[in-house]
Amino acid sequence: QLVESGGGLVQPGGSLRLFCEVLGSIFRINHMGWYRQAPGKQRELVALSSGGSTDYADSVKGRFTVSRDGGENTVALQMNDLKPEDTAVYFCNARLSTPENPWVPANLWGQGTQVTVSS
Fold first, then answer.
1. Smallest Cα–Cα separation from 16: which of 42, 40, 36?
2. What is the C-alpha separation between 10 and 108, in angstroms, rounded?
3. Beta strands of the chain (E only): which ranges?
4. Which ranges in 1-119 belong to alpha helices (H)?
5. Whether the Cβ atoms of residue 55 and residue 48 lie closer than 8 Å to each other
6. Which residues pair with 101 in a beta bridge?
7. 119 to each of 1, 9, 10, 11, 28, how far by Cα in Å?
8. What is the average pLDDT value for the chain, to the nearest integer?
9. Residue 72 pLDDT > 90, yes or no?
């Protein structure tokens, strides 16, 4: 289970921080990251953290930072210089396996948190 926190309403140029934690027993986490989905658009990758490496969508490079500072079972997204086009529902994502099925990773999603950038 993935539990998200953060999000909300912010003015253009402002900052927000999203946080996600994996609850339950974990055997291995392959990667964790964030996706977003704006109204009428497909879900898209925002940022990914895997084995010490990170990857970002071109639209957020230099403004967003993904980190695992809260522990290996967590992922945070620091969003700076937010723009109206960043408005979307943000979803935490993790690919992981459990002790019950150590060699069969599953793709898990958080419940989503709304980020609205508006003046």
1. 36
2. 28
3. 2-5, 8-10, 16-22, 28-37, 44-50, 53-56, 64-67, 74-79, 88-98, 101-109, 113-117
4. none
5. yes
6. 98
7. 34, 9, 8, 5, 42
8. 95
9. no
